């Protein structure tokens, strides 16, 4: 018989009863991420840091099921050994993350000085005025207020550990999102374009907070699954555009921070990528009709 995945040093072993077993040994996984020449859209680069405009579909760092083809693999190829080591061998230079299917701006530290300085700003969550993060999102329906703040702590969902959930547990972490409605599509609104600013940076924060408010992101299969029937409220062009988008409608559009070495204020803006811009444009025709 064959025992898959056993940790042994040879392929044949004899049991006490005389039976022999063949043991299949999986190939060893590399201890460190390998350099891969993956194209990067670099918005800014100097001796201390890079600002990347990450495409949707690109995982930030290696992990279970994503050992290769990540942003880290691309950064190692681009920067060589110059990336900060504070994040560990699996996350060199990574100060913050974006979900795989979220596009937009992300800063990477090229040395430990930059990593410490940027991490300090992210830990302060912009409350000292140095860090600015803004996202564009398309949500189902429309919040009643044009502007608002969602303050609801987050923790791993008890039902599904791959998801986050609003929680009152003592282990839950503070999470605060400010939002502004930029445009409503339809009357009554079938969807809205909103701008979100983060006061904290928790996993899936905007996606969970907007779902908690009753307005999950379009295309979000994790937190907006209950709104599948609402697709019929969209015109055909918007349904086709959403299918082409094939992800949650979320884009990191603004990133501002203080340069960790010079102290100079840096601010970058990224317009929605073509597939998201096309979807927003198709929704705009709902209002026109």
Q: Could you characterize what this model shows?
A:
With 289 residues, the protein is of the alpha+beta class. It has three domains: 1-26, no CATH class; 39-124, Pseudouridine synthase, CATH 3.30.2350; 130-289, Pseudouridine synthase, CATH 3.30.2350. It is built from five helices and 14 strands. It has helices spanning 71-79, 112-124, 205-212, 236-245, 274-288, and strands spanning 2-4, 12-14, 20-24, 42-45, 49-54, 103-109, 132-140, 147-151, 154-156, 164-166, 176-185, 191-198, 250-258, 265-269. Strands 4, 5, 6, 7, 8, 11, 12, 13 and 14 form a nine-stranded mixed sheet that branches. A three-stranded mixed sheet has the order 1-3-2, with no helix packed on it. A two-stranded antiparallel sheet has the order 9-10. It is globular, with a radius of gyration of 22 Å.
